[in-house]
Each structure stands twice: as structure tokens, then as C-alpha cells.
Design brief:
coiled coil; five-stranded mixed beta sheet; rod-shaped; alpha+beta; Heat Shock Protein 90; phosphorelay sensor kinase activity; transferase
Length: 463
């Protein structure tokens, strides 16, 4: 109970209410003391009127008047004359004198606290202003026992009243906190616990319903996080299933391609000039396909293998990619251009770099073919002291909004209808493996341009 939010709130409420009551009690008890003494002055003034009406007052009547007034003597000052009106023996010397005329609040509070903390009975002199213009001054002496007892009684009544108010207020606030704060928090916690049991179940995502603005914002934030996590888990499961399927297909496809490679060895023996010219390209394509299948099988076990760096003539890779894409383009009105220095040599993995360029050029070709309009695809390369810079640009329609929003995300950033977005994801991963970067320079109705940067100094030199 005490460790709960509502329990601590209940205790704090009671403490704060009592503190407020104490702050109210201090000036109240000072006011009570002042009223008590003013009442004694008024009663003493009334008793003195008997003597003023009849100067021959016997001692018994005088004693009774003083006893009823609760004082030992009464002194009145009329005009400039000070006159002892009523008097009786004072049991002990006067300890203190208090002047209630225009007494400041701080003085009244200090005197009241002093009286409460002084248990012994004392005789005090009290000076005040007579009521109803009865003179200039009235002065009485009295014992403090009755005053202190009355103050204690008043304080106890204030204390009990404060306790009742504190308990009543705390109970109301406890109920309000339970209803408006604790219950919604428990509902959110319950949802989080239920969601944690099966985060892939979209039905367990919280539905914001709180009427309190702060709690509703928390629920909406939690809903966003849960939705994103559920989507990520489903995507991960989908990728795992797809990876298993791809690994199986790659295994069988590798065997088929290996058999096809054996046949191409015989094709190379043909005397037909066209066959002799095309056979090496066919062999290279089959070799790349086999390596890709092997890499896919390796990826199913761990990660994409790192690049095997070697000195690579980039112009040869670009030429192979463009020759392959020209065949794929068929009768489409697409032109290919390359601006690559013939002597440019890169430190890279030839197979992986071929896949990067092939993915970018293939995406560009498919985008232009889908428009039915002519277009151009260009591959350009340059270098400086720190890096090799490669650009693949086209004059296609530009990437769609969804592809731009989910660029480089598998199954979300497809640039063409039915596309998976894997080409860009694979290209980016391979470039990162070389320590470089792949970025989109621009994409609009005039075309699209990607830039590849491969650093010269971040990788170990190879011979």
C-alpha cells in the first residue's frame, strides 16, 4: 500500500493538509488569545460601572464582581486621571504586561506561542481600550491558568477538525487519483504486459482511449512504438522465411548452372565466329551466377562475405554490364553511354562491383522501359586523391514517392511495379563492405542519378 502511487499520494495529501492547518492554526490561536483577553477587559469594565453608579460598594459585592470578571483589580483612566476602580489581593507578583492597543500581528503570535509553551500559572497585567468610549484606558490583572486552558481546548478542537478535514480530503483525492490516474496507468501497464507475451500479434497493440491529455499522448506514443515493432517482427519473419526459400532455390540453381557451364565449354570449341564471340560472355555470366548462388548460400549461414580485393580495371566491368543490359533491352529505344577512363584501376572485388553496377543499370533500364519512351543510361567514373567516384544516371521518370521514402529498404523501396527494392539494398551493402557509400544525388522527372564513393585509403593495399 505504502509503495503504491495512490498510497503515497494519500499520505502526502494528509501531511500537506495538516501543514496547511498548522499555518492556519498559528494566527488563529493568537486571535483566540486576543479575544479572550479583550473579553476579560470588557467584563471588568462592566463590573466597574457598578462602582461608578454607587460609590458605597461593600467588600463582598466588590469581590463577587471581580470574581465574575475573572480579574484581581481594575484600573480605569478617564481624562488624565488614573483611578483604581476595583481591587483584591494579588497572589503573586506580576510577571508580564501586555498592551493590546494596536498590537502588531507578529507580537500577538509570539505572545500566544509563549503562553502555550509556559505551563506554570502567572499573574499578568493587560492594558486595553475601553469599549463604547468608556475612557482612555482600562487595565486589569489576572492569572494565566484559565487563559492557557482555554487556548489548549481551542487548539484541540482545531486539531480534531484538521484531522477530519485531512482524512476526508485525502480519501476524496485518493479516490480521484485511483479513478483518473492509477486505473489508466494500470490499463497501459496491462496492455504492455499482454503485448510483451505476443508482440507479433497486431490485435494486442494498444488503442488510445484516455481522456487525460498527458496519458493519451503516452498511449499514442506507445501505440506507435508497438506498431513499428510488430511490423519489424513480421518483416524479420518474412525475411527469414524468404532467406530459407532463396537458399534452397540457390542450392538447386547452382547445380543446374554448373551443368550449363559444362555445356558452354563445348560451345567454346565451335568454329562459328558469332559463337566464339558470345561464348566467353556466356561463360562469364554463368560463372557470376554460380558465385552468386554460393554467396546466397553463405549468406543464409552468416553474412554477405567480405570483398576479396584485387586490382580491377573498371572499364571492363562497365563494358560487361552494358553488353548484358543491351541484350535485355531488346528492341527498346534505350541508349547506353560510358565515360570511364580506360586505364582506371580500382581496388575492389570484381564480382561484387559488377553486381553493384548491374543492379543500378538494370533498375534504370526497367524504369525507362516501363514508360515506353526512349531514354539514356550512362555510367561515369572519376577519381581524386582520396576516392574513386562512380555515377550511374538515367533520363527516366525518376523514383516514385514510396521508393524515395523507403530508399535502400528491402521489400519497401521498389522503384518499379512488382519490384522488391532488393537491388538497391544489395548494392548499398556491397559498397559498404568496401568501406564506401552509395547515395542518391537527385531524382525527378528529368531522371535519376546515384553516386558511389570508394575510398582509396581505408583499405589495405593489394598487389
Amino acid at each position: 500500500m505504502l509503495n503504491s502511487l495512490s498510497g503515497r499520494f494519500l499520505i502526502l495529501t494528509a501531511v500537506f493538509v495538516m501543514l496547511a492547518e498548522v499555518l492556519i492554526f498559528v494566527p488563529s490561536i493568537a486571535r483566540f488569545r486576543e479575544e479572550f483577553l479583550l473579553t476579560r477587559l470588557e467584563r471588568a469594565q462592566i463590573a466597574s460601572l457598578v462602582l461608578l453608579a454607587d460609590e458605597e460598594v461593600n467588600p463582598d459585592l466588590q469581590e463577587e464582581l471581580l470574581r465574575n470578571a475573572g480579574v484581581f483589580n481594575v484600573v480605569m483612566r478617564r481624562n488624565e486621571a488614573r483611578q483604581l476602580v476595583l481591587s483584591s489581593p494579588v497572589p503573586r507578583p506580576i510577571s508580564e504586561t501586555y498592551d493590546l492597543r494596536n498590537a502588531p500581528a507578529f507580537t500577538l503570535i509570539r505572545d500566544a506561542m509563549t503562553r502555550l509553551t509556559t505551563p506554570e500559572d502567572q499573574v499578568i497585567r493587560v492594558i486595553g481600550q475601553p469599549v463604547r468610549m468608556g475612557g482612555l484606558l482600562i487595565e486589569v490583572t489576572l492569572e494565566t491558568d484559565d487563559l492557557r486552558a482555554a487556548m489548549i481546548d481551542y487548539g484541540l478542537r482545531i486539531l480534531w477538525l484538521s484531522l477530519v478535514i485531512s482524512v476526508f480530503t485525502a480519501v476524496l483525492l485518493f479516490w480521484a487519483v485511483q479513478y483518473f490516474l492509477v486505473r489508466p496507468i494500470r490499463r497501459v501497464v496491462g496492455n504492455m504486459q499482454a503485448y510483451a507475451e505476443a508482440p507479433e500479434d497486431a490485435h494486442r497493440v494498444i488503442a488510445p482511449s484516455s481522456g487525460i491529455r498527458e496519458l493519451r499522448e503516452a498511449e499514442e506514443t506507445l501505440q506507435t512504438l508497438q506498431t513499428q515493432l510488430t511490423s519489424a517482427l513480421k518483416q524479420k519473419e518474412h525475411l527469414a522465411q524468404l532467406g530459407g526459400a532463396v537458399a534452397k532455390v540457390s542450392h538447386d540453381l547452382r547445380n543446374i548452372l554448373t551443368s550449363a557451364q559444362l555445356f558452354t565449354d563445348r560451345i567454346e570449341m565451335s568454329e562459328d565466329p558469332s559463337v566464339k564471340r558470345m561464348a566467353p560472355k556466356l561463360v562469364n555470366s554463368l560463372t557470376r551466377a554460380i558465385h552468386l548462388c554460393e554467396a546466397t548460400l553463405a549468406y543464409g549461414k552468416a553474412e554477405e562475405p567480405g570483398p576479396t580485393l584485387a586490382q580491377v580495371r573498371f572499364a571492363d566491368i562497365v563494358a560487361d554490364v552494358i553488353d548484358s543490359e543491351r541484350l535485355s533491352a531488346g528492341k527498346s529505344d534505350i541508349s547506353f553511354a560510358e565515360d570511364v577512363p580506360a586505364d582506371m584501376v580500382l581496388r575492389a572485388d570484381a564480382e561484387q562491383l559488377y553486381r553493384v553496377i548491374a543492379n543500378l543499370v538494370r533498375n534504370a533500364r526497367q524504369a525507362i522501359v516501363n514508360t515506353g519512351n526512349p531514354g539514356e543510361i550512362s555510367v561515369m567514373a572519376d577519381e581524386d586523391e582520396r576516392a574513386w567516384i562512380i555515377r550511374v544516371a538515367d533520363t527516366g521518370p525518376g523514383l516514385p514517392a514510396k521508393a524515395l521514402e523507403h530508399l535502400f529498404k528491402p521489400f519497401q523501396g521498389g522503384a518499379t511495379k512488382g519490384g522488391t527494392g532488393l537491388g538497391l539494398t544489395i548494392a548499398q551493402d556491397l559498397v559498404r563492405g568496401h568501406g564506401g557509400s552509395l547515395s542518391l544525388e537527385h531524382s525527378d522527372e528529368t531522371g535519376t542519378s546515384f553516386c558511389i564513393t570508394l575510398p582509396k585509403g581505408n583499405l589495405t593495399d593489394v598487389s
